[in-house]
Structure formats: structure tokens, C-alpha cells
Design brief:
Chain A: It is found in: Cytoplasm. The complex is a heterodimer. By secondary structure, chain A is α+β, with helices and mostly antiparallel strands. Chain A has 26 helices and 28 strands. The chains are: A alpha+beta, B alpha+beta.
């Protein structure tokens, strides 16, 4: 086929074009013709189709995402907000931290190892592009039922991919989650987060300004991998009847990425970069149009200069390729030689592929012939916007009316004991060590806390012991029952997890995993969840700094549970003051902070014992969450508590068991007045934590809680080698340990 | 007795970091003139019993579902008799 040049396109207005195959809708194609005042060339069509895909353009979600900016609380910590590769937060002492969570769900289902590995690679480059050195990664994961055969195919591959890529890069994996639920069968959620650290003056932005500046593509050669990944893969529902539509997956090379990291940090250090962008979804189409659009607008690219792995690639394919480990930098002409020299030193291929121009057009040439002539904003930032219809599904009332409070409860101490063991040994509550042990958690020597602690924590300054903590949470069961509250509970839990370690929560990133936006019920869930999250962020004073939306997570007609995954970043002035979860010192007093109500809707107990999902999720009280956070942070700083564990799914008993096993000590619990043993142990009321208080600090701690108005109830003592609930049951630690630790290996190893 | 050889290669459009590493090493070791290297896997299967169409079908199925990851790899099945003479299947 001959080259489809701009000239040729103008002369052949009626040539048929494969817009539908590229995932564009009729009206979208018409709009492209309107913008260009002619039919697009093949290369232009390729660019628009990938950039206007759901994955890149957020066309269904952006009308709702606006709230994260509109409702954002004023925060002095926020240095760079939504819209850049990742948000940047001031953590003091001249340091800034950038962090973000993204999804790599669909690729990970098709090819678990490479899908998950390239997910890590992609988020690391996002962080790098802000000017920061990546220091840690986290991975919130969700799979189908733990005993389903496909989980055994997907999970080991995903875990090995994350471990393989992250370990090769030398980045500690400090947190995340693993959740099993049949709703993720055929649609696992593989989210990946990364934290990077820099000095304030090192922040870099993705824009191309200064006519005459050179555009340099550096990193791996461009091959035929992942062509159309975003338009086809991440933006459509899987349909088993059409396997041929599956495009090639990308394969990552972590050693190339490591070189890219060091090389990029060195060109930053020498101040050689005027603008920078990583190449992820939509590859060069995205990098060139976004850089040009955010800058002055003009850019000229000689596409035939792009180094290729496969010489037979067409210009369209080069523009759409999602080959990994590539970056694009804007460099002043006088600095180009030095830039290339540094790349050479790191064994990184670097090529000047074009320059910033005076005009406002992105122009791309192929062996001297023009194949693209577009206003870059129309590609990158002015894509279609959909106000998708949304409606509360008619089954929502039925679901909420199916109150979990009516489920039969254990009648005897023996039954209670048996249900505790079932809960602790259930896939969602059991130890995830078999998974997290496959990741390197301690490389670089700065990890302070990692799984199974409440939040991951790394030291960022060896002199002052300044550190940051991150927790990710999201409970799809809660969100299914009530998306507005469910999203708020996800934020509340992550916030509480960070505070429980003694770090002050500062900012939020989110990865919103939902079904098809073309389903009004799913769109309603999305609208409610974003509204809930934005409201809660404002109330807690933690702005959303950026994130990612993953739609079309469904198989056939069945959508996954709405799953907003929320990451909260916190700062701690001195990591030696952090609070672990382990109950380690016998004789310390156990206090339950917060109020315990009969709240079992969406609970782990209702799932494990009754396979039930119905009713309402626990109520949210954000003022209480903030107060609890303040108390946990003060108590940690002033040495009033030696251990703290937030209460979430599985309730108090789950937290106590985890803390006991972590510390290797038992606990004796007494049911306080006004509560029954079952509610005390299994309720999932939010805004609660359990803490271990040294006897010498009891008065001071009680006084603080009393003065601030936080209910603190003494529920027992750290003691012995069993978890005992007085008058009910006692379970030896050895028995709990084998139930807790053997469950996952038995299913997956 | 027959031997069946299954060769597994990454699909042409898939990145092969190992092959690239070998290619980069060649000139350093004084081996010039190689423009690309791709590395694959070779399985030699000794077949017990007759090598009939049914056995070959089983082997192709084995290659498709287990020996090769057909999302990113292609494979070929070749029959090799004990004398070493080769025949395409």
C-alpha cells in the first residue's frame, strides 16, 4: 500500500477508512474530519483512535473526575496536581514525593507475567518523568475465587511478573493488597503504584516549549508490541468469540528500565531537560501530542528516524506501538550533545527525532513526506467527552434490604470459636506471605515497614530519618452495596492505615476499577463513587493528586464489583517512632478506639460464614476518622503506644490475631459492657483501631483520648500464648498460626 | 523409537531481551556481522509407543497448552527418527 500522505488524503476525501476497527464511533470519526477539514491520513487516524480511546481520553469518566479538582481541599503540601504524569507533594525538609496508582488489568489477564511486569514498568516511568527517583512500589491485586482453576493460572504469573520486574529494578515492594472474589473471575485487577522522591527544585513537567528545542526519543527500540493496546484491549469488553482481536502483548525488560532510570536521573542532574514524558499507553502518539499540546503547540517529527526493532513496521504502527522502556525528552540544541553522551554512557539508544516549532501544529514526516498535520490539543486534550446516562440500578434496593444483621449468628462459644478459625483461614483474611515473600521488600535498605503491616513505610533521609508511608485499600463488597459510602470507606481505611503507623496522611491517588460505562448501572456506580471520594477527600483535607480509571472490567454482561482503590500517602518526621502492628510485650494493655456497632453488611464474616452480600456497608464518620488519626499519630510520637492495628475487614478478632501472630504473644480479651462477644469480634464498624499501651502510659493515654473525645475501651491485655476471649473460648497461637499461614499455600502453591 | 522436537520461539513482534543481550555481547567478544539474535527453547520428546497421528495430535496439544505460551510464542513440531533423519510433521 502506498503512503497515505496529507496531500493524498486531501485529494481522496472518499477513501474508506477502518475507523470502526480502530475502535472509533461514527460521530467521533466525523469530528476528526471536521477538525482537519479533510479526511485523516492513516497515521492521523491511528493517533486519534488511540488517543481518543477510553483509556487515554477518559471520555466517559472526565465529567465526574472534575470533582477531584473542584472539591479539592486547600493543601499547602500540594506542589503539582492532577493532569501531570503524577502529583507531587511537599513532605518537608526540602523533599517532595510523587506517587500514583495505575491499572494494568486487561493485559494481565491475557498474559499474567508480562502484563503485570509491564504494569510496574509503566508506573515507574510515570514517577521518573516527574524528576523523581523511584523508591518503592505497591501492588493492589484482585483475583477470582481462590479455588478457581483460572486463579491458579493468573495469580502466580502476576505475582512472578511483579516480583521479577520490581526485584530486577531494585525497588522494594512495600504494600498493596490481595483480594479474592468470584466477581473478578475473568477480570483480575492488577493495579500498580510507585513512590518517587526528589528535591523541590527537581520537579519536571511534561511540556514542549521553546521553538528550536530538540525532541529526543531514548530507551528501547520500537517494535510491533502492544499495537492498539489501549484502544482495543483496555477499552473493550472481552468477548471469547473473537480471539483474533487480541493484539500482541508487550514484553518488558527491567534491566533496560534500570538503565533508563539512571540515565534519566543523570540528565536531570545536569539540567539538560526542558520537558519530558514517558511512553506508555498509545506510545509515540501520546508522547508527541501531549508534549506539544502542553507546550506552545508546534512540533515536527521525522518518524523514519525512530530506531526500530522490526524494519517492516508502517508509520501507523510506529505511532501506535506500545514498546516498553522508552522516554521522550525536549532538549535545548546546545545541550543535545551532552544528553546523547550520557545516554551512550548508560548504553541507552537515543535519537533526535524532531524539534519544537513556531506554529501550533504537530507535523509528522515519513521520508520527507508529510503524514500528520494536526492541532495537538485536538488529539491530546480535546478528545470527546461523554455525558453517559446513568441510573441507580433497580436491584440496588433489594440488595440493600437484604440485611446481613438477620443472618444466623453463632449460638455457642464452640460455634464462635469455629467461626473465628474459619475467618482467619479464609483466603481474604489469611496470611499473604506466600505472595509478598516473592517480592523483595527490603532492597535499598530503607524499608521501615512492609506487608503485613498496616502501611508500607520507607525512610527518605538517612540523616534526619524523615520517611513516607503509603497504604492502598478498596473494598468492592462495600462499594457494591453503596458506591458512595464504599469509596469513602476505601479512603477512610487507607487514611487510618497510614495514621496507625504514626504517619500523617497528606494526599491521595486512586485507581478506579469499574465495569462498562455503557451500562447505566455501572455509570451510576462510577458517578456515586467519585462523588463520595471527592467529598471525603475534601473533608479529610487530603487532595487527590492524580490516578487512573479502568473501565470495561467485565466479562459478558457481568461487571466486577465497583472497586475504587485508594492510596493514601503520609509523612513521618522520624521513622524510628513508627508504630508496628505486633503485640510484643506481655502485660501491655489493649485498648479499642472508636465505637463498635452491629454492622455486618459486606463484612468478611457474612462472606465467609454465609456467602452473603447484602444490606448496607458500615457507616462513615470522617470527623471521627480524622480524630482517630490525630490520636494515633500523637500517641506514636509521644511513645504512648507500642502497637496499633486498624480494624477493617474481619473486624477486631482479625486484627488481634494478626498482631498476636506478628509479635508471637497471646492476648486475653474481655467483652466490655454493652457489647456481645460476636459483635465485638466480627463487627466492621469504621473509625476504629486496637492499640497496645504500656502500663506506664495508661493514664496519659486515657487522658488524651478523654480530652479529645475519642472513645477508648480497655478490652484486654497482651498475655500468654493463646488468643482468649474470657468466658467464650481460647485458641492457641500455634493453631491460629497454622490456619492463618497455611491457607494460601494450600490453595496456590 | 521416535523423537519429536518442539521448537518454541517468541513471536516475531515480541521483544526478546535475552536475544538482544546476546547480540550486544557478540561484537564485544569479536564476533562481527550478526544483525539480530532471537533465542528460543527446544524440547526433545522421546515417544514411548507408536508415533501415530493420535500421538502427534497429543503432542501438538501439549505444545499449545503447556510447552509454549501461545500468547507470546510460536512453536513447531518436528519428528526425528533415531537415525537422526528429520521429517516435517
Amino acid at each position: 500500500m502506498s503512503l497515505d500522505t496529507v496531500k493524498h488524503a486531501a485529494e481522496t476525501p472518499d477513501a474508506a477508512q477502518p475507523w470502526a476497527e480502530l475502535g472509533l464511533k461514527q460521530d467521533e470519526y466525523e469530528r476528526i474530519r471536521e477538525i482537519l477539514d479533510r479526511r485523516p491520513t492513516g497515521a492521523e487516524l491511528a493517533m486519534y483512535s488511540v488517543m481518543w480511546s477510553e483509556h487515554c481520553s477518559y471520555k466517559s469518566s472526565k465529567v465526574h473526575l472534575k470533582q477531584f479538582s473542584e472539591k479539592a481541599p486547600k493543601s499547602e503540601a500540594m506542589l503539582v496536581g492532577i493532569g501531570e504524569n503524577a502529583g507531587v507533594v511537599d513532605v518537608g525538609q526540602g523533599y517532595a514525593v510523587t506517587f500514583k496508582v495505575e491499572s494494568h488489568n486487561h493485559p494481565s489477564y491475557i498474559e499474567p507475567y508480562q502484563g503485570a511486569a509491564t504494569g510496574v514498568g509503566g508506573i515507574v516511568r510515570d514517577i521518573l518523568a516527574m524528576g523523581a527517583r523511584p523508591v518503592a512500589v505497591v501492588d493492589p491485586l484482585r483475583f477470582g475465587a481462590a479455588d478457581h482453576p483460572d486463579t491458579k493460572r493468573v495469580l502466580p504469573g502476576v505475582v512472578a511478573g511483579i516480583g521479577g520486574y520490581g526485584n530486577c529494578l531494585g525497588l522494594p515492594n512495600i504494600g498493596g493488597e490481595v483480594v479474592f472474589d468470584p466477581c473478578y473471575q475473568g477480570n483480575p485487577l492488577v493495579n500498580a503504584g510507585c513512590i518517587g522522591v526528589m528535591k523541590h527544585e527537581d520537579i519536571h513537567l511534561a511540556k514542549a516549549s521553546g521553538p528550536g528545542n530538540k525532541v529526543i526519543l531514548y530507551g528501547a527500540r520500537t517494535g510491533g508490541d502492544g499495537i492498539g493496546g489501549v484502544s482495543v484491549l483496555a477499552s473493550e469488553t472481552f468477548d471469547d468469540s473473537k480471539p483474533a482481536k487480541r493484539p500482541a502483548v508487550q514484553v518488558g525488560d527491567p534491566f533496560q528500565e534500570k538503565l533508563l532510570i539512571e540515565c534519566t536521573l543523570e540528565v536531570f542532574r545536569e539540567d539538560l531537560v526542558a520537558g519530558i514524558q514517558d511512553l506508555g499507553g498509545a506510545g509515540l502518539s501520546c508522547a508527541t501530542s501531549e508534549l506539544a499540546s502542553a507546550g506552545s503547540g508546534g512540533m515536527r517529527i521525522e518518524l523514519d528516524t525512530v530506531p526500530l526493532r522490526d524494519a517492516s513496521l508502517s508509520p501507523e504502527e510506529i505511532l501506535m506501538s506500545e514498546s516498553q522502556e522508552r522516554m521522550c525528552a525536549i532538549v535545548e540544541p546546545g545541550k543535545v550533545d551532552r544528553f546523547l553522551e550520557i545516554c551512550e554512557k548508560w548504553d541507552v539508544i537515543a535519537t533526535v527525532i524532531g524539534e519544537v516549532t513556531e506554529g501550533e501544529r504537530l507535523e509528522i514526516f515519513w521520508h520527507g513526506e508529510q503524514i500528520v498535520d494536526v492541532p495537538p490539543r485536538s488529539v491530546a486534550h480535546e478528545g470527546p467527552t461523554y455525558h453517559r446516562p446513568y441510573a441507580r440500578p433497580d436491584w440496588q434496593d433489594t440488595l440493600q434490604a437484604d440485611d446481613a444483621g438477620r443472618l444466623p449468628r453463632p449460638q455457642t462459644p464452640e460455634e464462635l470459636r469455629e467461626q473465628v478459625l474459619r475467618l482467619v483461614g479464609s483466603p481474604n483474611q489469611a496470611s499473604k506471605a506466600w505472595i509478598t515473600d516473592q517480592y523483595d521488600r527490603f532492597v535499598q535498605g530503607n524499608t521501615v515497614l512492609a506487608q503485613p503491616e498496616d502501611a508500607g513505610m520507607v525512610r527518605i533521609d538517612e540523616e534526619s530519618n524523615l520517611g513516607v508511608a503509603i497504604a492502598t485499600d478498596g473494598n468492592g463488597r462495600y462499594a457494591k452495596l453503596d458506591p458512595y459510602t464504599g469509596a469513602q470507606l476505601a479512603l477512610a481505611e487507607a487514611y487510618r492505615n497510614v495514621a496507625a503507623t504514626g504517619a500523617k496522611p497528606l494526599a491521595v491517588s486512586d485507581c478506579l476499577n469499574f465495569g462498562s460505562p455503557e451500562d447505566p448501572a455501572v455509570m451510576w456506580q462510577f458517578a456515586e463513587a467519585t462523588r463520595g471520594l471527592a467529598d471525603a477527600c475534601r473533608q479529610l483535607g487530603t487532595p487527590v493528586t492524580g490516578g487512573n480509571v479502568s473501565l470495561y472490567n467485565q466479562t459478558g454482561e457481568t461487571a466486577i464489583h465497583p472497586t475504587p482503590v485508594v492510596a493514601v500517602l503520609g509523612v513521618i518526621d522520624d521513622v524510628t517512632r513508627r508504630t508496628p502492628i505486633a503485640f510484643a510485650a506481655e502485660g501491655q494493655l489493649l485498648y479499642l478506639l472508636g465505637d463498635t456497632r452491629e454492622e455486618f453488611g459486606g463484612s468478611a464474616w457474612s462472606q465467609v460464614v454465609h456467602d452473603h452480600l447484602g444490606g448496607l456497608p458500615p457507616a462513615v464518620d470522617l470527623d471521627r476518622e480524622r480524630l482517630l488519626g490525630e490520636i494515633l499519630i500523637s500517641a506514636s510520637r509521644d511513645g504512648m503506644i507500642d502497637a496499633a492495628h486498624d480494624l477493617s475487614d474481619g473486624g477486631l478478632i482479625q486484627a488481634v490475631v494478626e498482631s498476636c501472630l506478628r509479635g508471637g504473644t497471646g492476648a486475653r480479651l474481655i467483652v466490655p459492657d454493652g457489647l456481645d462477644a460476636f459483635t465485638l469480634l466480627f463487627s466492621e464498624s469504621a473509625g476504629r483501631a486496637v492499640v497496645a499501651v504500656p502500663r506506664s502510659e495508661e493514664v496519659r493515654f486515657n487522658d488524651m483520648c478523654g480530652a479529645r473525645g475519642l472513645p477508648a475501651t480497655r478490652i484486654g491485655v497482651v498475655d500468654g500464648d493463646a488468643v482468649e476471649v474470657q468466658g467464650e473460648f481460647s485458641i492457641p497461637l500455634t493453631e491460629l498460626r497454622s490456619v492463618y499461614e497455611d491457607a494460601i499455600p494450600a490453595l496456590l502453591a | 523409537m521416535a523423537r519429536v522436537v518442539v521448537d518454541v520461539m517468541l513471536k516475531p513482534e515480541i521483544l526478546d531481551p535475552q536475544g538482544q543481550a546476546v547480540q550486544r555481547a557478540l561484537p564485544r567478544l569479536g564476533f562481527e556481522g550478526i544483525s539480530d539474535v532471537r533465542q528460543g527453547k527446544r524440547f526433545e520428546l522421546e515417544v514411548a509407543g507408536p508415533l501415530d497421528e493420535a500421538a502427534l495430535t497429543r503432542i501438538r496439544e501439549m505444545a499449545e497448552t503447556f510447552l509454549a505460551n501461545t500468547v507470546i510464542e510460536d512453536f513447531t513440531v518436528k519428528v526425528e527418527d533415531v537415525d537422526g533423519a528429520k521429517a516435517e510433521s
